[in-house]
Amino acid sequence: MGRRRRRRVDPADAARALPEAIAVLTRTLPTGPSPETFRRAKFDRPEAAPALWRLLFCVLSPMPADGASPSLALEAQARSVKAALRFQGYPRRALAQLPDDGSQGGRELLLALAWLLARGPTLEQLLAQSRVRLGDEMPVCECESLASPGPAVPSVEADGCVDTRHLQWLMGKLRFRWRKLMASQQEQCALLGKIHSYTRGCHSDRSLGHLSVTETELLRDPEGGQQLLQRLERENVRLEAALEWRRRELVFWQWMDTVLGACPPEASQPTFLPEIPAQGAAELELVVRELQALQEELQAAVEPRRAAWEARVGGHGPEWSASRRALQEAVRQDLVALQWAWERGGGLTQPHEPHRLVSRTPTSC
Questions:
Q1: What is the pLDDT of residues 181-197, one digit of tens each?
Q2: Which superkingdom does the taxonomy of this entry point to (predicted)?
Q3: Rounded Cα gap, residues 141 and 270, in angstroms
């Protein structure tokens, strides 16, 4: 059996693969720049910086409900991008040192974009934000602790500046607004239910059986169907580009290795931490000792007050003990639910994510 001959890569095919991969990526991203902008950003050309500042701002900022891009000045967008990347732990300090006018930093911005793509499902989140919603969706809240009154906490007078009545007033105000929000959502669901009942039997999908608000609007204004069709076509283009990107992204990451190699290395120092001068080390040691002494003094003052408070609380009898056990059980259940959701979903829970509303009332045949 002869050896399997290795397939040679045509240099022309390799030269076309990178622009095609970047073009696929730009079709997936909102307001994606051209592949030529990426090439200029590798060489840190200033004309590539404004487009990448705007791209990162669209990636890092939540998209409005109507899908319109926010009209902010380039300087404000640059400051917002810096703050968002710093909040997410972006490690390179060179980007934070770029001017706020958005005229420089093409290479650093390209590295920041690659960092966002590599660290998490950035493309999936962007596609979910721009999804065309044909059905009626409602964010379902699963936080029952604010909606329910909860166990009554016995009032205990506090010594010092803690105003228990003010805290109770704030908690009551929060519960009132929470119930008001839930009431408005119930009213919206009632209005949607009327539309679902009026259009029952009009949908081609028997599992749904009724029309949504968007579909009902098409019956009232048929010309709006052309706009909806265009939105669906744009979404299909982005979805097809996302699938194609998964097949071509290796070429992009190989090219990003060359971009990273062209950047000057940064010193291995903690990011965004102030440097301590050598002559201030003795003064810092003195401050540390003073803080330790204050901590010990505070601990000595807290222990007697804590013991006195526990003695006073203990005099309330079984009412306080039952309330404390109820609170502990509620906290334990919340922790168990959070751990179960984390293990089931592989990440943080989304208690307010939208769910599609479908009427399940049986119909007579």
A1: 888 888 888 888 888 88
A2: Eukaryota
A3: 40
Give yes or no for a contact between 260 and 111, defined as CB atoms under 8 angstroms apart: yes
Contact call for residues 358 and 134 (beta carbons, < 8 A): no
Residues 6+ apart with CB under 8 A from 175: 146, 147, 149
First-residue to last-residue Cα distance in the chain: 69
- CB 225 within 8 Å of CB 218: yes
Question: Of 178, 132, 123, whose CA–CA distance to 351 is shortest?
Answer: 178
Tokens of 10: 């045509």
Q: Exposure pattern of 90-118 as b/e (b: 16+ CB <10 Å)?
A: beebebeebeeebbbbbbbbbbbbbbbbe
Q: Which two tokens stand for residue 183?
A: 């009431």
DSSP SS3 for 7 = coil
Residues across the chain = 365
Listed in order, strand segments (DSSP E) in 56-160 are: 137-139
∠ CA 246-248-250, nearest 5°, is: 95
pTM over 0.85: no
Do residues 103 and 49 lie in contact, with contact meaning Cβ atoms separated by under 8 Å? Answer: yes
Residue type present at position 263: C
* CB 112, CB 41: distance < 8 Å: no
Structure tokens at 335: 């922790």
- Biggest alpha carbon distance in the chain? 91
Measure the CA angle with vertex 128, ends 24 and 202; round to 5°. Answer: 115
For 260-278, give the secondary structure using H, E and C. HHHCCCCCCCCCCCCCCCH
How far is Cα 65 from Cα 56, in angstroms, rounded to an integer? 19
CA distance 342 to 340: 5
Distance (Å) of CA 213 to CA 107, 194, 195, 220: 46, 11, 7, 11
Structural tokens at position 44: 């840190």
- Chain segment 197-253, per-residue pLDDT in tens: 888 877 777 777 778 888 888 888 888 888 888 888 999 999 999 999 999 999 999
User: How far is the C-alpha of 95 from the C-alpha of 111, rounded, in Å?
Assistant: 9
